[in-house]
Specification:
- This protein has one domain: Rossmann fold (3-Layer(aba) Sandwich).
- Helix 1 crosses helix 2.
- Strand 4, helix 3 and strand 5 form a beta-alpha-beta unit.
- The longest helix has 19 residues.
- About 25% of the residues lie in helices and about 30% in strands.
- It contains 3 helices and 8 strands; from the N terminus they run E-H-E-H-E-E-H-E-E-E-E.
- The protein has about 180 residues and is of the alpha/beta class.
Length: about 180
């Protein structure tokens, strides 16, 4: 299926500012339990964004923040295990999440299925005091009752469009672009 670039919705500076704003919002909402805060990014890209938000928070508050990454591949309910070649990467949670305030981070929030899978995966590692959700882009079209606590940008899309986030950590330049499936 052919994809056509439709519009860039965020450039590197807009992404930087959005992640700094999210760090401030997280601090404002969690100032009472800042010492119990941990970030867990959903692989891949959510983990890079989690590190960036945590680094912003560390600069603002002069504290260290634990950051981990979780692979939700095997927890997804929308992957047919018999027809798809599954690529599983490592979950990296070098800290206990039990009793901690987890900020779950993903780059794009769409149907909510990835977030549901991430919460299921987290519960296999412990019982957090709370889970909050941060996303760079919320594009709508939820299939599950999931909402982000912190959003970099709301980007209305149609179902035949998708949002691709590119990050410097992957060897490129930070950007978020809408693509459209052609021929639908």
């Amino acid at each position: 299926m052919e994809m056509r670039e439709k519009a860039q919705v965020m450039n590197a500076e807009e992404i930087r500012r959005a992640l700094l704003r999210i760090a401030h919002e997280i601090l404002e909402q969690n100032h009472k339990h800042i010492e119990e805060l941990v970030f867990v990014g959903v692989k891949s890209r959510g983990d890079f964004i989690a590190h960036r938000i945590a680094e912003n928070l560390e600069r603002i508050e002069e504290i260290e923040v634990d950051v981990g990454a979780i692979d939700v591949t095997l927890y997804r309910d929308d992957i047919n295990l018999h027809e798809t070649q599954i690529q599983v990467s490592n979950t990296e949670l070098p800290f206990d999440i039990t009793g901690r305030w987890v900020i779950l981070v993903d780059e794009v929030l769409y149907t909510g299925r990835t977030v549901r899978a991430a919460m299921d995966a987290l519960m296999d590692f412990g019982r957090p005091a709370a889970i909050q959700l941060a996303t760079l882009i919320d594009r709508g079209h939820r299939e599950l009752p999931i909402a982000a606590d912190y959003v970099g940008k709301n980007v209305p899309t149609s179902r035949r469009e998708f949002v691709r986030v590119r990050l410097a950590e992957e060897g490129g330049v930070d950007s978020a672009t809408i693509y459209e499936r052609e021929g639908e």
